[in-house]
Amino acid sequence: MGGAGRVNEVRINPLLNYEQVIWNSVGVKYSNGPLNVAATYLQLDNTGNGNTGGAVSAGPGGAATLAAQTQRTYGVGANYTFGPATFGLVWTHSQLDNVQSANIGGTYLNGMPGTNLHLDNNEVNGCYAVTPALALGCLHVHGRQDDGFKRHGFVAVAYVLAASRLFAEQAH
């Protein structure tokens, strides 16, 4: 079981800005043998009201790619392990209401009030432990913007080599 938190007033950087970012989050997890299921919810309010410093910051050099009056993100994921293989599915939805600014590849765009953006991502992933020190994984992510026409996707293949395990085995 995960946790829940609420902070009513977080001053991101009081030396530069006195805007308040309000956040709410909750997460739950269920595990039973080879099955793991998790769900999360995050809401950020007022990230786009001139906040120029801190973890959720708008403006040039800020961490936020999109700053909005309200951002809600929720998702559900599950994986199942059988032997050395793990198979997983993940779905996330992000809803940004009244987008204030966007940082796209280092180009800062503001003056976007009234714009709403909804994004969905679907992921299928898998991992296979070839040896205790080597795992191979792959995933496919497909995303869709709220108008249904703007879609994106990618495929990734990766390997993980546990160097510390290799060194430990070589030492014996």
Secondary structure tally, helices: 1
Question: For the residues shown, what is the average pLDDT?
Answer: 75
Helix % is under 10%
CA(first)-CA(last) distance: 40 Å
The whole-angstrom Rg is 20 Å
Query: Largest beta sheet: what is the strand line-up?
Result: 1-2-3-4-5-6-7-8
Alpha-beta content class: mainly beta
The main β sheet shows up as:
8 strands, antiparallel
| Strand fraction | over 45%
Unreliable runs, pLDDT <50, ≥5 residues? 1-18
- C-alpha geometry: elongated
Beta-strand segment tally: 8
Describe the structure.
The chain has 172 residues and is mainly β. It has one domain. It contains 1 helix and 8 strands; from the N terminus they run E-E-E-E-E-E-E-E-H. It has one helix spanning 163-171, and strands spanning 4-11, 20-32, 35-45, 66-82, 85-104, 107-131, 134-145, 151-161. The chain has an 8-stranded antiparallel β-sheet, with no helix packed on it. The longest helix is centred in the C-terminal third of the chain and has 9 residues, at 163-171. It is elongated. Mean pLDDT is 75; it is low at 1-18.
